[in-house]
């Protein structure tokens, strides 16, 4: 897996993240993907997915595979009533239509954040540390979400969580609750991109 395996520092875990309020007009699932809409036009093309993954620290190969896999898989679902496009655009406003099966249920059908479902992840699976998941606990969590013979949903869920774990686990192999929460509301990606840019700038200054 390409990219940094160091944990990402997320502060303020005790407060409700921006966009979690039910009255917010933008659903949280939209906020989750907005980082990848690099020009903020409401549409995500494969090139933007690639750029987004590179920005958070993923290698060229993983970013390329992600761009193909994600855009080919989600484009048609987010463009109801529209003809096929070989550019595989994803429309952010309809992203809830592409929510895959065998998931945690933290996003509801409208893309809203469900606090009780989020809390269940750690109540049921965080055995070693109350606010973090080990690799084995994450695997058990993913397995608990699987619906019978839903191989596409299994693959989508495994890929998402595996990438998150590899990029954001700490030095002890723990994926922390505040990091997972920030991934759900999308703020994690901005933080990761800023940290990567800061490290790159520091390395350039030291040369």
Automatic annotation (TrEMBL):
Pfam families: Caleosin. Keywords: Membrane, Transmembrane, Transmembrane helix. Residues 1-22 are annotated as: Disordered. The keyword Transmembrane applies. It comes from the Eukaryota. Residues 1-15 have a biased composition (Low complexity). GO terms for molecular function: calcium ion binding; monooxygenase activity. The chain crosses the membrane at residues 53-74. PANTHER family: INACTIVE PEROXYGENASE-LIKE PROTEIN-RELATED (PTHR31495:SF1), PEROXYGENASE 3-RELATED (PTHR31495). Belongs to the caleosin family. This is Peroxygenase 4. It comes from Sesamum alatum. The lineage of its organism: Eukaryota, Viridiplantae, Streptophyta, Embryophyta, Tracheophyta.
């Amino acid at each position: 897996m390409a990219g940094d395996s160091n944990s990402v520092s997320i502060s303020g875990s005790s407060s409700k993240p921006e966009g979690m309020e039910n009255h917010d007009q933008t659903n949280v699932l939209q906020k989750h993907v907005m980082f990848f809409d690099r020009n903020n036009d409401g549409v995500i093309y494969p090139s933007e997915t690639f750029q987004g993954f590179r920005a958070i620290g993923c290698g060229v190969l993983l970013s390329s595979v992600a761009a193909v896999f994600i855009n080919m898989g989600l484009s048609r679902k987010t463009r109801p009533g529209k003809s096929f496009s070989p550019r595989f655009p994803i429309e952010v406003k309809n992203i809830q239509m592409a929510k895959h099966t065998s998931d945690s249920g933290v996003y509801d059908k409208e893309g809203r954040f469900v606090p009780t479902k989020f809390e269940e992840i750690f109540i049921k699976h965080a055995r070693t540390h109350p606010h973090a998941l080990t690799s084995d606990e994450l695997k058990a969590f993913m397995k608990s979400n699987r619906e019978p013979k839903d191989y596409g949903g299994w693959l989508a869920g495994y890929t998402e969580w595996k990438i998150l774990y590899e990029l954001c686990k700490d030095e002890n192999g723990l994926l922390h609750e505040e990091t997972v929460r920030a991934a759900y509301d999308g703020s994690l990606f901005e933080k990761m991109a800023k940290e990567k840019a800061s490290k790159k700038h520091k390395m350039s200054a030291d040369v």
